Amino acid sequence: MTGLPSGVSRTAVLIAQAREGESARPSGLFRDPLARPLVEAAGRIDGVSEAGRRAADHFVLRTRYFDDRLTEAAAAGIRQVVLLAAGLDTRAFRLDWPEDLALFEVDLPDLVAFKEKVLADQGAQPRCARKAVAADLREDWPAALTEAGFDPERPTAWLIEGVLMYLAPEDGARVLERVGELSAPGSRLSAEHVNEAYLRQPAMKPAMNRLQATQAAWLSSVEDPVDWLAGFGWRAEVTHQADLARSLGRPVPPMADSSVVGAARIWLVTALS
After folding, report:
1. pTM attached to this predicted model
2. Across the beta sheet with 235-239, what order do the strands follow?
3. pLDDT tens digits for 86-112?
4. How does the average pLDDT of the chain come out, rounded?
5. Taking the C-alpha atoms of 105, 108, 109 and 113 in order, what is their torsion angle to the nearest 10 degrees?
6. Structural domains for the chain
7. How far is CA 194 from the centre of its chain?
8. CA–CA gap between residue 267 and residue 259 (Å, rounded)
9. What is Dmax (Cα atoms) for the chain?
10. CA 137, CA 123: separation in Å to the nearest integer?
11. Do residues 73 and 83 make contact, with C-beta atoms less than 8 angstroms apart?
């Protein structure tokens, strides 16, 4: 079966392929048995470039980083999680959630329809109360989210993974404004972004050209994520990829090695309201 929409949605396949590969490792940082069925249904992306292979290392580290942030939020008593631009995410099925936790996945209608069919075909059963919400982050997604049962009066753990760089600066700011409006005291936010130096790396040019050709260009960057998120009411901390890799007993990926990438940075951020 094929049918995953083109554009940004196709990037979700590369991320799922990275999760599939990591799950096959005896010492994998996580296990995702649904990654392979999702990849096979979507159509595997072959001939991945060197930049793509390096990105896979980042996807693996990023996945574990955000896994830990979300499970920490649940352990702290938060019972509402929202994944914005969830893509082919399977955290509802593979993480050990409290039974009373509600998890919402927001993404484009075509992608949601594709993913729901694959999950149904696999007989996948979530480990929490899961709700898929079909909505575009550039439109009125808060209305769709609340209609699906989201409660803005309850503290929420938000995840904005792998999407902000695809949004124009004004659209990204609007997403953060809306997240702030929906966040009760005690909410948490985890997010990823990049700085301009990362966008301008010569090594990234082939990948950027391919993304642009599939209508998935990167449109924004952030130089100081702590200051940026403070403007939306969040107290943020940044974890650098190199430190994350070392803490997990993994080699520092070339794309996180300052001797290789210079001032280029991928920001992994966690924040409190």
Report:
1. 0.93
2. 129-134, 102-107, 80-84, 157-160, 188-194, 266-272, 235-239
3. 999 999 999 999 999 999 999 999 999
4. 91
5. -60
6. 61-272 (3.40.50.150)
7. 13
8. 17
9. 49
10. 29
11. no
